[in-house]
Amino acid sequence: MALEQTRAGGLADRAERAVLVEIDLASRSLSSRTAAAGARLAVVRPDEARLGEEATHPLDAAPESAQLSPSTELDADESLAEFRELVASAGGIIVAEIMQRRQRPDPATLIGAGKVEEIAGVAASTEADLVLFDHDLTPTQLRNLEAALPCRVLDRTQLILDIFARHARTREGQLQVELAQLDYMLPRLAGKGKAMSQLGGGIGTRGPGETKLETDRRQIKRRIDHLKLELDSVRRVRKQQRQRRESVPVPTVALVGYTNAGKSTLFNRLTGSQVLQSARMFATLDPKLRAIELPSRRKILLSDTVGFIRNLPHTLVTSFRATLEEVAQAEVLLHIRDASSTYGEEQKTQVERVLGELDCLAKPRIEVLNKIDLLGEPEREGLLERASPAGEVAVSARTGEGMDALLEAIDRALHTDPVLSAELRVPQQEGAVLAAIEAGMVVHSRRYEGNLVLLTVSGPASLLGRLRSYRLRDESLPLG
After folding, report:
1. Which of 390, 181, 163 is nearest to 260 (CA)?
2. What is the CATH class of 248-413?
3. Sign of CA dihedral 326, 327, 328, 334
4. Which of 141, 101, 144, 145 is nearest to 120 (CA)?
5. How remote is the C-alpha of 301 from its chain's centroid?
6. Rounded to 5 degrees, what are φ and ψ at 10?
7. How far apart are CA 365 and CA 410, in angstroms?
8. Which residues lie closer than 8 Å to 200 by C-beta, 6 or more apart?
9. What contacts 276, CB < 8 A, 6 or more positions away?
10. CATH code, residues 419-476
């Protein structure tokens, strides 16, 4: 979807043109460097490329070192491919891609003086609206790059914040995004330069609206304090809702996973809902709760949550804590993984890193290998053979394959309101009791003796407790 861009002469609706910049640090694996060797994967390639530029920038060097942690999980090409998806989710058009190999980041400009000149030439020749860096920039680096380049400069965190701002629909989601944007903006006011000299309407400019250079820290801090108070109110309401839910023994199971792993598609498949499912990253920001019934006839609440990503900005994790509390309160987590991804293990590591920030690593988790319909037959068979012994469940949310096995796995993992087996003796005239048994339990056998119905059933302990007067005996039922 094209981004709206405000210009002095009026409104012009068009997609913004972006130059992507990726850095391949020497600390990556040798195979990763080989795969990225000579890589300047560009729609428009400048004639005079300087790969591996090591020059330092004469501009005022930053006292703070660049916060550039090497992406050891992904090689350079995979990292660039993921960055492309982020730009597409923000509605931008990629006009050039530039990759540089360096031993270490430049503290003044991240990439070195020669590469800055090259990017300036590419941006000018392609009439780019902005240059996007797949790394975070310090305030000094942002200021220096804005001064040297002919267009706006955004880093990875700003891009992700912009995508969140585009997809926030509820008041709560908008509050959380605005808080994250202001937290990130505050130390960078001096470095915003051209981007804050006038109101904008493109990538990285939507959200708080405080985009003029004269925006001072005091106003932003007051706004941050106000947003925190509003989000505290949201948390109180959520806590009250959870307390009401907890008064009835209905456990919550939360879907977590890397962005675009298929969580919303799986949520729709299991619940029959119609929440937005999209190939775009971060299509889901606001949590969704729906009740479903398990094979044991237990009822659970299934929660769909925001997806995680490599180097997810800490400001987002903090701001979205109200939303992510659904994860913290869940009894079981379904970790949805893209079985067709070439870097699934790296994605798993990133998800577990965020779960660690939320203190949720100790929770029971079921590994759900999704999108098996995208695998070739040999890969598919190998995955199905491996999944069961490893405690994983292989499914296709799109086709519905593996849903029964997944529901059974959830049943086994739950400890709240355990399933018991029992023998019941119910008079035939007790129609309401018999209806409740049929609706909430699995009936294994039924026979009649005079006016009595003798039943062997299994079902939630909460329901069996209400039928205590009809029980002959009961015992724990081993599921699976």
Report:
1. 163
2. alpha beta
3. positive
4. 145
5. 20
6. 135, -165
7. 9
8. 5, 6, 152, 211
9. 264, 283, 284
10. 3.30.70.240
CA distance 234 to 238: 6
Does the CA dihedral 27-30-35-37 come out positive or negative? Answer: positive
The CATH architecture assigned to 4-166 reads 3-Layer(aba) Sandwich (3.40)
Burial 387-414 (b: 16+ CB within 10 A, else e): beeeebbbbbbbeeebbebbbbbbbbbb
Tracing tokens 């006292």 back to the chain, one arrives at 63
pLDDT digits (tens, 9 = 90+) for 278-331: 555 565 556 678 889 888 888 888 988 877 887 777 777 776 766 677 788 889
Domain ranges of the chain: 4-166, 248-413, 419-476
Residue 295, token pair as written in the block: 């094979």
- Three state DSSP letters for the chain: CCCEEEECCEEEECCCEEEEEEEEECCCCHHHHHHHCCCCCCCCCCCCCCCCCCCCCCCCCCCCCCCCCCCCCCCHHHHHHHHHHHHHHCCCEEEEEEEEEECCCECCCECCHHHHHHHHHHHHHCCCCEEEECCCCCHHHHHHHHHHCCCEEECHHHHHHHHHHHHCCCHHHHHHHHHHHHHHHHHHCCCCHHHHCCCCCCCCCCCCCCCCCCCCHHHHHHHHHHHHHHHHHHHHHHHHHHHHHHCCCCCEEEEEEECCCCHHHHHHHHHCCCCCCCCCCCCCCCCEEEEEECCCCCEEEEEECCCECCCCCHHHHHHCHHHHHHHHHCCEEEEEEECCCCCHHHHHHHHHHHHHHCCCCCCCEEEEEECHHHCCHHHHHHHHHHHCCCCEEECCCCCCCCHHHHHHHHHHHCCCCCEEEEEEEEECCCHHHHHHHHHHCEEEEEEEECCEEEEEEEEEHHHHHHCHHHEEEEEECCCC
Tens of pLDDT along 237-267? 877 877 776 666 678 899 999 888 888 889 9
CB 282 within 8 A of CB 259: yes
Looking at residue 361, its amino acid is L
- What's the predicted TM-score (pTM) here? 0.71
Residue indicated by tokens 């790394």:
135
- 283: closest CA among 85, 89, 84, 88? 89
- Under a CB-based contact definition with an 8 Å cutoff, are residues 79 and 22 in contact? yes
Q: Do domains 4-166 and 248-413 have the same CATH topology?
A: yes
Q: Label residue 373 left, alpha or beta by phi (over 0 means left) and psi (-120 to 50 means alpha).
A: alpha
Closest CA to 110 of 161, 81, 149, 77: 149
pLDDT digit string (tens) for 383-406? 877 766 567 899 999 999 999 999
